[in-house]
Amino acid sequence: MELNNLSLKNRSIWEENGFELPMYDRSEVRRNTLEEPTWIHFGAGNIFRGFLGAVQEQLLNEEKSDKGIIVCEGFDTEIITKAYKPYDDLSLLVVLKPDGKVEKKIIGSIVHSLIVDTDNTNDWHELNEIFKKPSLQMVSFTITEKGYSLVNAKSEYLKDVEEDFERGVKSPKSYIGKLTALCYARYMNGKLPIALVSMDNCSHNGTRLYEAVSTFAKMWVKNGIVEDAFIDYINNPAQVSFPWSMIDKITPRPDVNIKRQLEKEGFKSTEIICTSKNTYTAPFINAEEPQYLVIEDLFPNGRPPLDQAGVIFTDRKTVDQVEKMKVCTCLNPLHTALAIYGCLLSYTAIYEEMRDDLLKTFVEKLAYKEGLPVVVDPGIIDPAAFVKEVLEVRLPNPFVPDTPQRIATDTSQKLAIRFGETIKAYQKREELNASDLEYIPLVLAGWCRYLLGIDDQGQAFDISPDPMLDTVTKHLQDIRVGDSGSFSDNLKPILSDEQIFGVNLYEVGLGEKVEAYFAELISSTGAVRKTLEKYVYGKINR
């Protein structure tokens, strides 16, 4: 069994081995899609294939749609050349259930893949033609939070961005520059309406996308590259909308144990690929079963019937409440806490951390004691039930091989959302005080300790990639495990940085507390676990 169109024609052997196959004529769907595309997606990673592709697969199998998805990739193009094209754009979704059962689904809904690169003239021309199509309803994105940033850590425009402001619509090099150029092609073809839907895990993601695109539009108008009316087009939600959304599904990097299991069952397309940009991908995706996608219902050209496959459409206020519930309280902060302390305590799997009573209790207290008190119930998803599923079903699932090292990537870009928003919520409540928080500052102190790259046993480990590493680690470079005294001079430039935490931690009464926790965490070999025990178990025993 190989993952390609020809092999799937022998349905019996696949079905005998427990694989679910597409129930539709894929060649017809592809033809329909290319003639009148409705949905194109930027970002060809695992969550796209394992969630969005599977949602559209359900609609196709149930005859609720006759169109597939076109995917394009502009950051790591090897994903397209190595994980899509050789397999006829097919994927295998392996759903890992907590009881050990596995579902294997061939995803055929992704019918065409392209590279977002103006130097790739064929693909760039085809992308322009797709954006000119009146049928196109939605352009969605999973390009990670940093994909929307036009500036570096010093708030200076990135080189490609600055050059694109002058270069214009013909051959932009930056991600958002290329997207804006495609939007301009749609504008020039009759000011056609479109929804640009960010599905990345960042607060108010639609606004982040709007700000990036509109900045390009304004700069191009300023530089005389496009006419003033293009800004009006981008700013008019009846023509171009930027809905907010919240997406949630754990799709770790491909796991070698899943690879071996599939090979035993006769599935041959199991190569785990590491691209030159250090992206791990494969023809298969291993993912958990729970999934949530909530989108603001703001689609000026109509939308695919995703609501018939479990996607929730609602108003902006409700999306904001759901997003804050998940990103700021009920999942992402717990993930970050486990990532930081998992690396410090030499864990390599999240589910293994959840078997450590100390870490399990820590994230429970983080969620129930400090997070839930400021969560606003969005009405469509119950926060208490959601966090219970996270703590009791999702994080402990041994069949979801996620790692603290993966989750620790780009932590500096996540702290403001995952913890800063909760701190702000405490500041706004008269009956609560941010300075009383204990577990959130313990996470933040743990991150500072993590930045030393030395685990609790004194062994060096690789710090996960992060765009601000050089900026923050320079303040800590002279600190060693076993040092004592005040570290205020080292930590103050970090802890006062609102870009990192969303607040100045000293101004909300937490800076000194984080300093004190850090001093305990650094005091000796083994101090990380001892400090956690002191505050996590000590809190319980009072």
Report on the architecture of this protein.
By secondary structure, the chain is an alpha/beta fold. The chain folds into two domains: 5-314, NAD(P)-binding Rossmann-like Domain (Rossmann fold); 316-541, N-(1-d-carboxylethyl)-l-norvaline Dehydrogenase, domain 2. It has helices spanning 5-8, 11-16, 26-35, 46-61, 78-84, 121-131, 159-167, 175-188, 205-222, 229-235, 256-264, 316-330, 332-344, 350-353, 357-371, 383-394, 404-407, 415-428, 439-450, 469-473, 488-495, 498-501, 511-521, 527-541, and strands spanning 19-20, 39-42, 69-73, 91-96, 102-107, 110-115, 138-141, 194-198, 240-241, 245-248, 273-274, 280-281, 284-288, 292-296, 312-314. The strands form four sheets. The protein has a six-stranded parallel beta sheet with strand order 6-3-2-7-8-9, sandwiched between helices. It has a four-stranded mixed beta sheet with strand order 1-5-4-13. Helix 12 packs across helix 16. The radius of gyration is 24 Å and the shape is globular. The model has no long low-confidence stretch (mean pLDDT 95).
Identify the notable features of this structure and list them briefly.
6-stranded parallel beta sheet; 2 domains; 45% helix; 15 strands; 4-stranded mixed beta sheet; alpha/beta; single chain; 542 residues; Rossmann fold; globular; N-(1-d-carboxylethyl)-l-norvaline Dehydrogenase, domain 2; 24 helices
